[in-house]
Sequence to fold (391 residues):
Amino acid sequence: MTDDDRLTTSFPLAAYAFESSPLSAARTAEFRDYLPYNQGNRTLIAEEDGTTLAAVSAIPMRQNLRGVVLPMAGVAGVATHPLARRQGHVRTLLHQLLDEMRDEGHPLSALYPFRPSFYARFGYAGLPKPRRVTFAPANLAALLRVDLPGEVGWERVAAGYPAWRAFTERNLQERHGFAIFPDHRAVGMRDRDEYWLLTARVGGEVTGAVTYRIDEHGGTLHGNELLATDPLARALLLQFFARHVDQIERITVQVPPDELPELWLTDLDVHVEARTAVPGSSAPMARLLSLDALSGLPAGPGRVRIELTGDRWLAGTHLLDGTTGVLELVDDTTGRAPTATLTAAGLSALAYGVLDPAELPLRGLGEVSVDAATELRGLFPRRVPYLFADF
Ligand SMILES: CC(C)(COP(=O)(O)OP(=O)(O)OC[C@H]1O[C@@H](n2cnc3c(N)ncnc32)[C@H](O)[C@@H]1OP(=O)(O)O)[C@@H](O)C(=O)NCCC(=O)NCCS
Fold:
C-alpha cells in the first residue's frame, strides 16, 4: 500500500483493532492527517474481492545493539478483519513483511505485542518494560537548595524539536536497546505540539531531556521518558520539577528499566511500577532477523558452536568466537557437533542481553550444555536494553 490507499485499507482495520468504535465521521476525516507520518513505512495488506482482510506495517527504524547502531524493522498496525481472523492472513503477511525488511538491510526487528506468545512463535524475545515513577514535588525540596553547575531550557516541544531530536539521536548512539523513528514519523511529536520540552544543559550541550504536560492546577505533571546521560542532568531536571511544589500534587515520569529512583534522593517517597497485561499493556519484544547483526559486536571472551533451529530467517550451524573482543561468526562446515541448539528467540534473548543461557532450556528456547552456557555467558554478558520508542 502507498499513501492514499492506506485511508481505505489498513487505517480502518487498525482503527477497528485499536480504537473505540464505530468511528465518528470526524475521526475518519482525521485519517488523512496521519498519512505523512506513514509515508516511509512498508504496509502490506491481504485483500479479497476489494475487501481488506488483514494489514501489517513496518517502520524503518534504527536501534543500538550492544553499542552498534543497526537498521531495525518496527512492526506495527497488525490487524485482521473480524470475519477473517484465524485463517493465517497475519502469518502470511508477517512472513513477507519481515522477508522484505530483512532483504533490504534490517537485521533487527522490534514490536509491542498484544500477546507475547503470539510473537514468540515468530522468534521474538521479551525485552524489559520501562518503569513509571510517581512522587510528590515536595519530596524534591532538598534539590532546591543545591547550586548545580548547569542550566535548564524550557519551551514547547515544537520550538525545541531540533534539540529533542538531536538528543534522542545521541542516546541512540550511546545506549543499548535504544531505538528511534525515522524523521517522517518522529516529526509527529513536533507537529502535534502537545508537550513542554525541558532540557538539562551543561556548557551549552544537552545532557538530559523530558517532555511533559500538566493536567490542571493541583493535578499531575505527566512526564514521558526522562532521559539523562549522567546524574547531574537528572538532578537539573528534578530541580526544575521541585519548583512546582505549589502548583501540582504529583509528578509521574517514565524511566529506563534499569533506573533506581529510590536512590535519587534521601527521604524520597516514590512509587515505581511496571505492569504488563494482555492485550493493552505490553512489554516490547525484539529479534534478530539476520546474523549480520552479530558480526563485529563487542563481545566478551567465549567460543561456541551453535545450531539454529525452527526459524524462517536464522538457520545453520555457526562458530561464534569472541576471543578477540569482537564477535566473529563463521559458518561451520566442519561437521562437528554443536554444543548448543538455539531458537531464534533464544539467540535474540542472548544478543539483547535479557536472558542467561541457562534459562533458555527452561523456556523452550534451546538446548544448552553446561560448557556452552559458560561460553555464551562470556560472549553475551547480561545487559538491560531500553527500547525507548513506543509504537
Ligand atoms: C491477533 C490478530 C492480529 C491475529 O491475526 P490472524 O490473521 O487471525 O492470525 P493468523 O490466522 O495468521 O494466526 C497465526 C497463528 O497464530 C495463532 N493465533 C491467532 N490469534 C492468536 C491469539 N490471539 N493468541 C494466540 N495465538 C493466536 C493462529 O492460530 C495461528 O497459528 P498456526 O500458525 O498454528 O496456524 C487478529 O486476530 C486481530 O486483528 N486481532 C485484533 C487486533 C490485535 O490484537 N492486533 C494485534 C496487534 S499487535
Observations:
- The chain has a mean pLDDT of 97.
